[in-house]
Predict the structure of Putative ribosomally synthesized peptide with SipW-like signal peptide.
Amino acid sequence: MKKTNKVLLLGLCAVLLVAASVLGTVAYLTSSDSVTNTFTVGSVAITLDEQDVDNSTEGADRDQANAYKLMPGHTYTKDPIVHVASTSEDCYLFVKVTNEIIDIEDENSVAAQMADKGWIAVDAVNGVYVYTTDRANPAVVSANANVPVFETFTIAGSVTNETLAEYENKTITVTAYAIQADGFQNKTASEIWNMAKFDTAGN
């Protein structure tokens, strides 16, 4: 009996060994795949310039600074334009204008020209304007856009020499700002401006 059991046990072990060998060589149908994401970084890029009227930059048509000799009744070319770079994402445009000769301008003032070109004052932010196309909501501006701010300024003909002398070395300073349009849909100009946290120190 013991011999028979031993033979059966050995036979069973042999069968298990064969089965294990067979199962070890079975190939299963499998598949795999992967996705690799490569990220680039978007950017918003603008420049601001104006016509070179005093030839302070030799050979240049556009400049970032001009000097003027003020005279009553005279109109001066000053045409700041915001240029959105070809690589820029869609953006909203703002300008801050510090006009130290506002009190001696004629009726075709810098502010009036800006309104005609779609720039409206941002609520509760002194001297800051947002670009619009409907005179109400911030406009989305795309790459390669050139957006004029104003074109000239004119000294009123009624200004006396004495008054004019008080404006020696006064300036009109225009600073442009841009923020990505994505993520700011349906926001007001003041909300966008405050969320952007622009550094306006010194302007």
